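Lecture notes, unit on protein representations.

Consider one protein chain, 524 amino acids long.
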Amino acid sequence: MIFRSPYAEIAIPEVSLTELILESAGRHGDKPALIEGASGRTITYRELAERIERAAASLSERGFRKGDCLAIFSSNIPEYAIAFHAAARLGGIITTVNPLYTADEVAHQLKDAGAKYLVTMPELLDKAREAASGAGVEEIFVFGEAEGATPFDSLYETKERAPVVFINAREDICALPFSSGTTGLPKGVMLTHHNLVSNMCQMEQMNLFGAEDNLICVLPLFHIYGLMVILNLGLYKGATIVTVPRFELEQFLKLMQDYRVTFAHVVPPIMLALAKHPSVDNYDLSSLHTIFSGAAPLGEAMTLACIERLNCQVRQGYGMTEASPATHCTGSTAEKTKHGSVGMCVPNTEAKLVDVETGEVVGVGKRGELWVRGPQVMKGYHNKPDATAGTIDKDGWLHTGDIGYIDEDGHLFIVDRVKELIKYKGFQVAPAELEAILLSHPAIADAAVIPSPDEEAGEVPKAFVVLKGEVSPDEIKEFVAERVAPHKKIRRLEVVDQIPKTASGKILRRLLKEREQAQVKATN
């Protein structure tokens, strides 16, 4: 049974992403587009369009061409949008890099993406230099100023206009975020201009927010949720976006109060704080009319707790990097919403559920792996045709790796995952990556990593290790922490006699997960 969107089909314009954004910017003139939350520094829509054009012209003068890759290694600041769209304006490919990555992790992404230029910020410059040194990066730009890097602001000095570049929206790649997909190590997700424009037009139909709204962008812009659902959709709709480099509850609440934020994009751990933390009562959040939660499932109880406490609407969406990202969204009215559900298919999108054992398509109320199809589905994984073929089938269905069911009204509920990824505060953690690091330790004979349920984070990485030498659990955790970004740290660890495996040597994570869930349940 194929479940189709209840919303009317829409026409997707055959334009580049930046063309769409700049056309919108032209209508909003001196209205604030981007505000740096901490300082109040503001870029208007007129200034945004001018700076994108000038930065694009300067990049072109330096030799940046269609198909070249620009990497952005930065936390959230207003200039992120300028760097992204200056490269996209020229037909460039933008790969967004997690600012918490280690130098080795950054280097891997830069090499894989083939980055020509790297844009970073002063506090990340040492790490950026180390990563870029052997990755073929030709020049490093920095937001602000720092010795040994080109100030990004210097790109505004040209009086020239950027050249006209023909962009084939359906074929040309615009964004190359990295995702672990349904399994394995991070892979570059090739998102075309048409993928991204399609998803913005699809989300526009869901009546999330408009030009009169103030948004807060605390979710990281290297992540597809922050990049597309907040930044680019916000600019397309003409909203004002307040950027915040990282989530700190008191600052987050103060900025929402001071800037009269009306629409807040969050993830479930932030929802937990909004529902339960006593500090929330110290701030005036009366301007807030909607909270939108994504990146991980949000339960009914947490939803209702936030609605009651903040007297606002709570909406939820579902998606993945490989879908630009949104495929499902709850409706704009109470009648179109079921708490705990991620909603129904957005326009021009189809879904079906497939029994993971039999491969048979299942109907209403039956659980299965979610498959989705629509114009927002990626072109494929960069330089990984086999991984692409394993994720998108010949009929165009994207196999999400998530287990859910669809009720009689077409509402999707996500209940589990086929894939092995851990979702720590909405961020993906690949067990295989952590297992490889653990196995490099001389005192560890074998290792397996699974998600362990956690109220605040949703899931945390837990390692099971078999020892062959003397080492403490804390020493093992520190060994891993030195080699990965903070969200990938091993938070829990258990020493065992052996790791359960199949005859072919595949880790039986299901058995470890069942054991862990039983232990967590017993202690609660």
